[in-house]
């Protein structure tokens, strides 16, 4: 029957947004959607990473494939990634992946000429496209200039010269293409303290109860000497407080439920894509995946014809 | 030695269609859909959305083997609908839900950064 929709209307509330970290609440949707978003953020949002390395000279202490592996893991700024094509789908360059639409070229030249150890870092990678460069992590702790990710260290006389090609890919293919450092979501806890039962406890018992929780979920209000909820979200769904309440002979002292349709996401990005952009791209990629999975119009037509035939054969 | 290549997880080879289905010969209004090169990401959300449909009597998915990248989705419906209709309806509803989520996210992000700029 057409016309009835079983759609849900999710709500989002953002708590923290930084360049590489984002925390938000997702409500009124199902756990399967939250999990799908998490899986897509880790494995299916496309980024750009070095995929092909041609080494001309390498007299360093690390061998060729070791250096190539390290180069692949360097995060590159991938704002262009959603618009780029995959190398295997590119028709401009017959798929060997060296054209400007589907790849970015890098080169690196380093030779140590003095007695000081030369650190070859990601900053020494020279890109053919100035929008696709290794991620720069501003190191505010020390305050001095950040050299970037160290690839290899060279002694006097050692040299490294190579050409690298970076392509678009997804985390499912290789982890170097994953834009997410960690993506977690938890159910929002609902904590209810039974005040009547709580009154029957002495202050020492209350302190014991508060301390039995491995994280600081509860605290004792210094003014009223009551047990209050300090930080509901620190609860990790270990049931230590419930076990402690039973051990003290007071089951039902607190009741903790997980709200089934309320999730708290924490998204950390590697720097290749901004955290907010990562979530946005994840929603887009999930939509694309759903579109790819639709039944084509002719299979539905064929089914309707078969449906008639089937009904005939069954005497309907 | 026997491990399939990583790109097999998501690249559909030539000649293989992404979605195919088989009607059940013994039960009316029942069908099994085979979706190639997909995993729990799509399987679970489709299954949960199908459960919300009143006309769907049974909806379940499985990955027959973890090294063969396809999902089998089985749907039984009442005579008011058909598995194909239920499947398409579920995808449409999920698409609209994700659209709604995207718009909410955009407005919330704009509102949040606007509020941050005030400081």
From TrEMBL, chain A:
<dbReference type="GO" id="GO:0000419">
    <property type="term" value="C:RNA polymerase V complex"/>
</dbReference>
<dbReference type="InterPro" id="IPR011263">
    <property type="entry name" value="DNA-dir_RNA_pol_RpoA/D/Rpb3"/>
</dbReference>
<dbReference type="InterPro" id="IPR011262">
    <property type="entry name" value="DNA-dir_RNA_pol_insert"/>
</dbReference>
<dbReference type="InterPro" id="IPR036643">
    <property type="entry name" value="RNApol_insert_sf"/>
</dbReference>
<keyword id="KW-0007">Acetylation</keyword>
<protein>
    <recommendedName>
        <fullName>DNA-directed RNA polymerase RpoA/D/Rpb3-type domain-containing protein</fullName>
    </recommendedName>
</protein>
<comment type="similarity">
    <text>Belongs to the archaeal Rpo3/eukaryotic RPB3 RNA polymerase subunit family.</text>
</comment>
<dbReference type="Pfam" id="PF01193">
    <property type="entry name" value="RNA_pol_L"/>
</dbReference>
<dbReference type="InterPro" id="IPR022842">
    <property type="entry name" value="RNAP_Rpo3/Rpb3/RPAC1"/>
</dbReference>
<keyword id="KW-0240">DNA-directed RNA polymerase</keyword>
<dbReference type="InterPro" id="IPR036603">
    <property type="entry name" value="RBP11-like"/>
</dbReference>
<dbReference type="Pfam" id="PF01000">
    <property type="entry name" value="RNA_pol_A_bac"/>
</dbReference>
<dbReference type="GO" id="GO:0000418">
    <property type="term" value="C:RNA polymerase IV complex"/>
</dbReference>
<dbReference type="InterPro" id="IPR050518">
    <property type="entry name" value="Rpo3/RPB3_RNA_Pol_subunit"/>
</dbReference>
<keyword id="KW-0539">Nucleus</keyword>
<keyword id="KW-0804">Transcription</keyword>
<feature type="domain" description="DNA-directed RNA polymerase RpoA/D/Rpb3-type">
    <location>
        <begin position="21"/>
        <end position="296"/>
    </location>
</feature>
<dbReference type="InterPro" id="IPR001514">
    <property type="entry name" value="DNA-dir_RNA_pol_30-40kDasu_CS"/>
</dbReference>
From TrEMBL, chain B:
<keyword id="KW-0240">DNA-directed RNA polymerase</keyword>
<comment type="similarity">
    <text>Belongs to the archaeal Rpo11/eukaryotic RPB11/RPC19 RNA polymerase subunit family.</text>
</comment>
<dbReference type="InterPro" id="IPR037685">
    <property type="entry name" value="RBP11"/>
</dbReference>
<feature type="coiled-coil region">
    <location>
        <begin position="84"/>
        <end position="111"/>
    </location>
</feature>
<dbReference type="Pfam" id="PF13656">
    <property type="entry name" value="RNA_pol_L_2"/>
</dbReference>
<dbReference type="InterPro" id="IPR036603">
    <property type="entry name" value="RBP11-like"/>
</dbReference>
<keyword id="KW-0804">Transcription</keyword>
<protein>
    <recommendedName>
        <fullName>DNA-directed RNA polymerase RBP11-like dimerisation domain-containing protein</fullName>
    </recommendedName>
</protein>
<dbReference type="InterPro" id="IPR009025">
    <property type="entry name" value="RBP11-like_dimer"/>
</dbReference>
<keyword id="KW-0539">Nucleus</keyword>
<dbReference type="InterPro" id="IPR008193">
    <property type="entry name" value="RNA_pol_Rpb11_13-16kDa_CS"/>
</dbReference>
<dbReference type="InterPro" id="IPR022905">
    <property type="entry name" value="Rpo11-like"/>
</dbReference>
<feature type="domain" description="DNA-directed RNA polymerase RBP11-like dimerisation">
    <location>
        <begin position="31"/>
        <end position="103"/>
    </location>
</feature>
<dbReference type="GO" id="GO:0005665">
    <property type="term" value="C:RNA polymerase II, core complex"/>
</dbReference>
<keyword id="KW-0175">Coiled coil</keyword>
């Amino acid at each position: 029957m057409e016309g009835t929709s079983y759609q849900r209307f999710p709500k989002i509330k953002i708590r923290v947004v930084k360049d590489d970290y984002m925390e938000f609440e997702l409500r009124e949707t199902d756990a399967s959607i939250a999990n799908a978003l998490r899986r897509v953020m880790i494995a299916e949002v496309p980024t750009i990473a070095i995929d092909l390395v041609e080494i001309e000279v390498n007299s360093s202490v690390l061998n060729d494939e070791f250096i190539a592996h390290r180069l692949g893991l360097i995060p590159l700024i991938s704002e262009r990634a959603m618009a780029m094509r995959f190398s295997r789908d590119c028709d401009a360059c017959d798929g060997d992946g060296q054209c400007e639409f589907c790849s970015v070229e890098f080169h690196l030249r380093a030779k140590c000429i003095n007695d000081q150890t030369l650190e070859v870092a990601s900053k020494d990678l020279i890109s053919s496209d100035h929008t696709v460069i290794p991620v720069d992590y501003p190191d505010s702790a020390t305050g001095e200039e950040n050299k970037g990710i160290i690839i290899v260290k060279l002694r006097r006389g050692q040299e490294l010269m190579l050409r690298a090609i970076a392509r678009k890919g997804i985390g499912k293919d290789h982890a170097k293409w994953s834009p997410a450092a960690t993506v977690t979501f938890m159910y929002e806890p609902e904590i209810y303290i039974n005040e009547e039962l709580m009154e029957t406890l002495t202050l020492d018992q209350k302190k014991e109860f508060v301390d039995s929780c491995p994280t600081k979920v509860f605290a004792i209000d210094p003014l009223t000497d009551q047990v209050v909820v300090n930080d509901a979200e620190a609860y990790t769904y270990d049931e230590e407080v419930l076990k402690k309440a039973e051990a003290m002979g007071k089951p039902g002292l607190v009741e903790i439920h997980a709200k089934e349709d309320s999730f708290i996401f924490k998204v950390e990005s590697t720097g290749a894509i901004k955290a907010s952009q990562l979530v946005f791209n994840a929603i887009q990629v999930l939509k694309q995946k759903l579109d790819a999975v639709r039944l084509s119009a002719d299979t539905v037509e064929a089914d309707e014809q078969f449906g008639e035939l089937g009904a005939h054969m069954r005497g309907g | 030695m026997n491990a399939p290549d990583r790109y097999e997880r998501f690249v559909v080879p030539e000649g293989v269609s992404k979605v195919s289905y088989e009607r059940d010969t013994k039960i009316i209004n029942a069908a099994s859909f085979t979706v190639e090169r997909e995993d729990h990401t799509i399987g679970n959300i489709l299954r949960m959305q199908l459960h919300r449909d009143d006309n769907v009597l049974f909806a379940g998915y499985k990955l027959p083997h973890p090294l063969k990248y396809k999902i089998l989705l089985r749907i039984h419906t009442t005579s008011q609908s058909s598995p194909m209709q239920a499947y398409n309806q579920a995808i449409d509803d999920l698409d609209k839900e994700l659209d709604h989520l995207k718009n909410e996210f955009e407005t919330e992000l704009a509102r949040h950064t606007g509020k941050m700029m005030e400081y």
